[in-house]
Amino acid sequence: MEPATFRILTHYTTLPPQIYYTISFLVSHKMSW
User: Fold this and answer.
1) In terms of pLDDT, which residue wins out, 15 or 27?
2) What is the rounded distance in angstroms from the CA atom of residue 22 to the CA atom of residue 28?
3) Torsion on CA atoms 15, 18, 19, 22, rounded to nearest 10
4) Domain of life here (predicted)?
5) DSSP state of 15
6) How far is CA 21 from its chain centroid?
7) Which of 2, 15, 19, 22 is the least buried, fewest Cβ under 10 Å from its Cβ?
8) Tens-digit pLDDT profile for residues 3-21
9) Half-sphere CA count of 11, side-chain side, radius 13 A
């Protein structure tokens, strides 16, 4: 794995849990249409 990709992944994994809840909510809401 490239260091740049690893930095990007670690950056996103440090996001607050609320971000993941919002994304999953938007995805599930869009799929329910």
Assistant:
1) 27
2) 10
3) 170
4) Eukaryota
5) S
6) 9
7) 2
8) 787 777 676 666 677 877 8
9) 6
